[in-house]
Every structure is written in C-alpha cells, then in structure tokens.
C-alpha cells in the first residue's frame, strides 16, 4: 500500500521521545536502513523507538540497544497487514515517524513530524539516498548489533568443526552466499566451489580455512552443483560448515561475524556481512552495484562484462556466466589483502 510521497524532506534535530521507524520486508533493504536507524538511536538516546520490519529481518533489530519495541510484519492477503498495523498503533502519538516503505499508515497515524522515503531513480548508494532524507553527510553506514548470548551461540555452532588442522575458532572462515532470489542473479554454484577451494588451498589467502555456506532452506536445491563439486574434491568434508536453513537470521549473523572473507551474489547475507565489518565481495549482473553494492570500508563489487542496461533487457537464467572465476578470485584477493592492512 503506497501513496504519493510527502514533501517533508529535511530533518531538524529537535527532541523526540517517541519514534516509529518503518523499514523493509526485504532482508537486504532492511539491513541497508540500519545506518540511519543507528544514527537516530545515537541522536535521540532517550527516545522510545519502535521498529516495524518484515518477519525475516525483524530479529536483527531486537538485538539493537535502545530499541523499545520491534513489530514483525507478517504479510496478509489484500495488504491487511497494514490495516492491522494501523489498528495496533492508532492510539499513540508519535514525535517522529520515519517511513522507508512510503505507506499510507504513516499518514494516518498522529505525528509531529514525518519523513517518508519516496524512492530514488538515481544510481547512488542506498545509504546516501536515506541520509539525504535527514540532510546528513557523510551517510551513516549499515551496522548490525549482536548480543553476547547470540554471539556465544554462533561460536558454539562454529566450534562443532573438528576436521580442521587448527582450533575450530582459529581456523579462518570463508563465508559464501551462492543462492539468489532469481536465477538471473546467481553466479554458477560450481564456480563458487572452485573459488572456495582455491582460496582455502595451502597457497591460498585462507590456508586451512573452512567454508561456511549461507542460504535459506528453500534455496538448498540451487546449490546442488556446489555440494557435488566439493564432494568430488579432496577438501575435508568436516571443514564445510553447512548453515543452509539451519539457523535463524540472528544466529546466521553471529556466524557471519566470525568470517575472514565473504563472497556472494547480491543478497541479504551480502549486506549483513558488510554491516558486520567482514571484508565483503558482492557479485553483480542483473542488479545495480552502484545502488546495492555492499556498503562499508572493506567492501567491493564486481560485475559481468555486460552492462546493467544490457542485462536488464534479458529475463533468462545464466546471465552471470560471463563473470569468470579468475576475475572473481583476483578481486577477492585484492579485497582481502587491502582489508588485512587496514588498521
């Protein structure tokens, strides 16, 4: 349910005691909004902050200090979830509503100030787009918060590996997100396998490393060729950490935070890794890395030789076949070595 954007644009740092923050259903977009959310938390430390987010990303917000309430938004037919949200919140008075979904709900609730994101056609990073709503520069970068309990649970899960020559929590982890929400955005899984084997080889940048695979349960079928390629190799099976569909999103974040390097398609896990400060390489073809590339100091994006415009004329799987494994490996090695030198 969307309506034309309001003319509210700039934000004044007036005192706010009740803030409503409506962010995305999508994991990636929700993570990209955490920079602005963190900035609001820091500039309004005494405010009661309520976050509305999709079911998948909602647990990430429950770990943020200063968040009073997180409302997971479960989609319903005929957009009834928005009506339910309005019924839940209509009795409250808000000092500030930040609506990154451009919904009717934010217009129908009582508020002293509203800031609505109307979307943008400009090919600039999403973090910059959101920061301009508040007139702040440089843009606050996405971030994720992990509680000690969830981090300990992640460490416990990772420590189940006993096949590494190093202690489980000392062996470097290469995190992969080889799935995608559409086949046209997916780099071939068998290339992910070959890349991972090269990077964790004795002469690779992550020798004796483990390979952690992140994806949702329903995406496992996409990864059959990756598992087959790893099984055919001499890579010890115990050094593969299969996290596909095994963890909730908060535990997945705790595991991602321990990675030394992340490589993945344009996806929610890619944005999570970048927000956690993990050196992150995103692979792009049919989506725009200028807007949705991983955002942070130790991040990089590599795309197909074909331009975004060329690929967007097509609607077919295999659009990322032209992105070669040697190019991706070289980009990963450059990123990792540069990040390793960063103080």
What structural keywords apply?
five-stranded parallel sheet, disordered N terminus, alpha/beta, Rossmann fold, 34% helix, 343 residues, 2 domains, globular
Account of the protein in words:
With 343 residues, the chain is α/β, with parallel strands linked by helices. It folds into two domains: 18-134, Glycogen Phosphorylase B (Rossmann fold, 3-Layer(aba) Sandwich); 148-341, Rossmann fold. The protein contains 14 helices and eleven strands. It has a six-stranded parallel β-sheet, sandwiched between helices. The longest helix has 17 residues, at 325-341. Residues 1-10 and 162-166 have low confidence and may be disordered.
| Estimated share of beta-strand residues | 15-25%
Q: How far apart are the first and last residues' alpha carbons, in Å?
A: 46 Å
CATH classification class of the largest domain: Alpha Beta
| Shape field | globular
Stretches where pLDDT is under 50 for at least 5 consecutive residues are 1-10, 162-166
CATH architecture assignment of the largest domain: 3-Layer(aba) Sandwich
Briefly note the structural class of the backbone.
alpha/beta
Order of helices and strands: EHHEHEHEHEHHEHEHEHEHEHEHH
Radius of gyration: 21 Å
Number of helices: 14
Number of strands: 11
CATH superfamily of the largest domain: Glycogen Phosphorylase B
Number of domains: 2
Mean pLDDT: 90
Strand order of the largest sheet: 8-7-6-9-10-11
Percentage of residues assigned to helices: 25-40%
> Mind describing the biggest β-sheet?
6 strands, parallel
At the third CATH level, what is the topology name of the largest domain? Rossmann fold
